[in-house]
Amino acid sequence: MQYFFVLPLNYEKIAAYFANPYKNKCMQVFKFGGASIKSADAVRNMVEILKRFPDEKILIVVSAMGKTTNALEEILHLKLKKLSTKATIQKLYEDHANIVNSLFDDHASEPLEFLQSIFEELENSLEKIDINHYDQSYDSIISYGEIISSNLLLKYLELKEFSITKVNAYELVRTDDTFRDASVNWIKTKETISEKVKNEFTNHQLLITQGFLGGTEEGQITTLGREGSDFSAAIFAYSLNAKAVTIWKDVPGILNADPKKIQDAVLYQELSYKEAAEMTYYGASVIHPKTIKPLANAGIPMHVRSFSKADKGGTIIHDCKVIHEIPCIIIKEKQSLISFQLNDFTFITESLIGKIFDTLNKHHIKINMMQNTAISFSICVNDDLHRLDQLMSELKNDFSILYNTGLELITIKNFNESLIDRMTHKKEIYLEQRTRKNYQVVVKSLESRV
Ligand SMILES: Nc1ncnc2c1ncn2[C@@H]1O[C@H](COP(=O)(O)OP(=O)(O)O)[C@@H](O)[C@H]1O
Ligand SMILES: N[C@@H](CC(=O)OP(=O)(O)O)C(=O)O
């Protein structure tokens, strides 16, 4: 008699191992987000961080400076509403020009020329946007933030005599044409990145590239979803089988709650990939939700460290067995609750739910929480007016639709009753769920009401 043993296999992990069995011991990926390059002083601080690693080959992934992406979104929306964009563009230009003048001093003329020409290009691109192709127009405009920051930082790091060159993520991270939420073609991306980047590292200590951006086979720029630069760092690390990724943030690392919202939050020194992925799934905005998977599959550790206290270790996310029992609070803002109902006492059936799911999928809307009753089906999703308008106009003939905006989704892992009381105090509860370990609630703050 023959016996067959069937083992549970993680095919992606095995494929990653065979594709690249040896860690690229000499290179790592650093990601600097908007906050870490928001001013001239912040950029000088970034230089000090890089000086701490003179013997390392580092691929630097940068986001747009400060709140540039929000400003570009505002410019796009003004343009689509046929309102004047002049003042907002001028302010964005001046914010960048002030940083350039402070950083480059006597050498500012060339970066200022670059800045002028790229802002002219931005204005020309704005003339070409097409409301019928909103997502594509969005990517063509919003991508300017990272293109500007990567070029300015390259020039500054050259001035500071680093051995550095730039590679463009929109030529290397190959995606489909799902604009605003592009999917990565991992095989092509890995091929392109390893070829190009290895080549450039033979002559340079540092490479700089844009976070958040990708590109289609046809050369159109795509974006990976808001706050997607952490994911970009993971894409590059995975493709190069880097030794580690470090994300430099304005917090000491990952805490059991956002320290800007919960005063007594405590730092995790280490987290397993699973725990970290779960936190991002529920909406911990410190890391983009797609970041952990490629790193976990390739076994690459990720450090989250403070850019203002670069001597501190922060949090390491890696393959470890630690399971934290302390409560973890995740507050996801800018939520909408949409309820689909039938007015004739028809029950909500699987086929009706199926129709809602198909439409959500078509418009790339992700559900953060859901619940059904006999005659209604409710979903909590991110406030994205453009996508939600499309969803509701497509389903309005089948359902009567109620919706509330400006809500918060609060998740408490390892909850206790006093914490639930604390978190729901002065809040109106719209939807509530609990399992043995997790508590979730959709609320509206009563204090913010007029
Ligand atoms: N659990 C958490 N631990 C640490 N920071 C958190 C957590 N949840 C949310 N945050 C927020 O994440 C922010 C850092 O992420 P983000 O603003 O995206 O950084 P960057 O844009 O610089 O990459 C912090 O300022 C903090 O307010
Ligand atoms: N600039 C993009 C991508 C990004 O990840 O930015 P940050 O690293 O500053 O969150 C955004 O704001 O969405």
From TrEMBL:
Family: Belongs to the aspartokinase family.
Pathway of action: Amino-acid biosynthesis; L-lysine biosynthesis via DAP pathway; (S)-tetrahydrodipicolinate from L-aspartate: step 1/4; Amino-acid biosynthesis; L-methionine biosynthesis via de novo pathway; L-homoserine from L-aspartate: step 1/3; Amino-acid biosynthesis; L-threonine biosynthesis; L-threonine from L-aspartate: step 1/5
Reactions that this protein is recorded to catalyse: L-aspartate + ATP = 4-phospho-L-aspartate + ADP
GO-annotated molecular function: aspartate kinase activity; ATP binding
GO terms under cellular component: cytosol
UniProt keywords, alphabetically: Amino-acid biosynthesis, ATP-binding, Kinase, Nucleotide-binding, Transferase
Organism: Marivirga arenosa
Pfam families, per the entry: AA_kinase (PF00696)
This protein's name: Aspartokinase
Domain Aspartate/glutamate/uridylate kinase: 28-306
Any one Gene Ontology BP term: homoserine biosynthetic process
Its EC number(s): 2.7.2.4
The keyword Amino-acid biosynthesis belongs to this UniProt entry's keyword annotation: yes
